[in-house]
Amino acid sequence: MEECIFCQIANGKRDAEIIYSDEKVMAFMDHRPIGRGHILVLPREHYRDVFEIPDDILCRVSVIAKKLSIAVKRTFNPLGINLIENNGTDAGQTIFHFHIHIIPRYDSRYNNELAKVAWGRKVVSPDVLRETREKIQKNLETGK
Ligand code: 5GP
Ligand code: ZN
């Protein structure tokens, strides 16, 4: 995809601080880091989101995200690390080439209460949880 900036980075047509690269996966530093050591891990090939990426590629990207998270922890010893992957504009996706964010957390103000508020948690009844679980389970494809 010529217009995709992550494809351009993968093809060497755009600069980035590349921290990892193999034949299927690459990772580079986010240019607007949320915290020191914020990394993006992605497939070299263009897949829009979690709905497009093949299972085997997702596995490879995930394993590299784990290895890089361990390296970030060893390097900066953050208080915590989020692994986040956004799908769709309303979920915060701005670059439509699948990528996992590795986001180290250094600010304890985001612990507990503030973090919960930011995620907008709701209290729901056991019935609502059960109905929701049953509805999703009907659409769960297994063994693929
Ligand atoms: P999204 O919002 O799609 O989950 O995340 C896209 C991420 O890509 C953002 O965190 C943004 O800072 C990062 N990003 C966007 N353009 C570039 C770029 O040209 N170079 C690098 N290194 N990161 C980028
Ligand atoms: Zn792309």
CATH architectural grouping: 2-Layer Sandwich
Count helical runs.
4
Poorly predicted runs of 5 or more residues = none
The major β-sheet equals: 5 strands, antiparallel
Q: Which strands sit side by side, in order, in the main sheet?
A: 1-2-3-5-4
Q: Radius of gyration from the CA trace?
A: 17 Å
Which ligands does the model contain, each kind named once? guanosine-5'-monophosphate, zinc ion
| SSE class | alpha+beta
CATH topology: HIT family, subunit A
User: Could you tell me the number of beta strands?
Assistant: 5
Average pLDDT figure: 92
Beta content: 15-25%
Q: Which term fits the overall shape?
A: globular
**N to C succession of SSEs:** HEEEHEEHH
CATH first level: which class? Alpha Beta
So what's the oligomer here? single chain
Termini separation: 27 Å
CATH superfamily: HIT-like
Topology:
Layout: H1 5-10, E1 18-21, E2 25-29, E3 39-43, H2 55-76, E4 80-84, E5 100-105, H3 112-119, H4 126-138
Antiparallel strand pairs: 1-2, 2-3, 3-5, 4-5
Q: Could you provide a short overview of the structure?
A:
The chain has helices at residues 5-10, 55-76, 112-119, 126-138; strands spanning 18-21, 25-29, 39-43, 80-84, 100-105. It has 4 helices and 5 strands; from the N terminus they run αβββαββαα.
Describe the model:
- This protein is an alpha+beta fold and 144 residues long.
- It has one domain (5-119): HIT-like (HIT family, subunit A, 2-Layer Sandwich), CATH 3.30.428.10.
- It has helices at 5-10, 55-76, 112-119, 126-138, and strands spanning 18-21, 25-29, 39-43, 80-84, 100-105.
- A five-stranded antiparallel β-sheet has the order 1-2-3-5-4, with helices on one face.
- Strand 1 and strand 2 form a beta hairpin.
- The model has no long low-confidence stretch (mean pLDDT 92).
- Bound molecules: guanosine-5'-monophosphate and zinc ion (ZN).
- Guanosine-5'-monophosphate binds next to strand 2.
